[in-house]
Design goal:
10 strands, 434 Repressor (Amino-terminal Domain), 6 helices, about 270 residues, alpha+beta, 4-stranded antiparallel beta sheet
Amino acid sequence: MTNTSSPAVGDSIGARLRAARERAGLSSLQAAAKLHLEPRMIEALEAGEFPELGAPVYVRGHLRRYAELLGTPAGELLDAYAAQIAASAPPDPAKLVHATPVRAPRQLAGPVVGVIVAGTVIAGIWLALKGLPTATLPDAVPPSAESKPVPDAPPATAAPGAAVPAGPAEAPAPSAMETPASKPVGTVRLRLAIRGDSWVEVYDARGKRLYFDLARAPGTLSVAGPAPLRVLLGYADGVAVEADGRTIEVPGSVRSGRSAHFVIAADGVLSRAP
């Protein structure tokens, strides 16, 4: 695995975890089994290769669980990891100073303007001396004889018994068009039956954290939020999943070793998390 994290901070965190594991008399395989993680994840934690573990929210969860297992203060490790993230964050573009280019003053075309003005004055004097022919307007066209108004024709009298055509029917007033109401975001009620200790993370469609902790067996965990829900199970075989009262199997396509990462849509369909 390629280490893309900060060497100084990452190695410090990993070295402390490795030393604490050795003091506890555990091998990396034993630690992975107790945390229901793959051995490569323990190796990544102790090597400081945190990008291999996914998003920072997952890294913090693994650091906290590993520290609790080894009896090491988790707060110090999490503070060191937060400092590493802050040091590697890209600079804020809004704080960058942008230089405004200075435009060179435009030079006035003095000679050209002078020639144009002089030519206009000379032309005006020449036309005044010569005299321009006066343009005559065409005679106004005499108004045509007033047309006498044609008297209105007398209204036709309907023959007795003849049906009088009805006037145009008034168009019915258009009915108000109903604007379809926006469909509310569906809510999924998730129930997890904990049969074996497992790390559990649940987030709703807005990214709000609904659960983020180690779930102890035996027990149940119930959360609800707008769909889709994003779920991470550290030990998928130890957790039974129900959505809106319907049991959902966790297929192998969403698993990675013992863990599982998936999303549940509003209709209860489970799919692999992006």
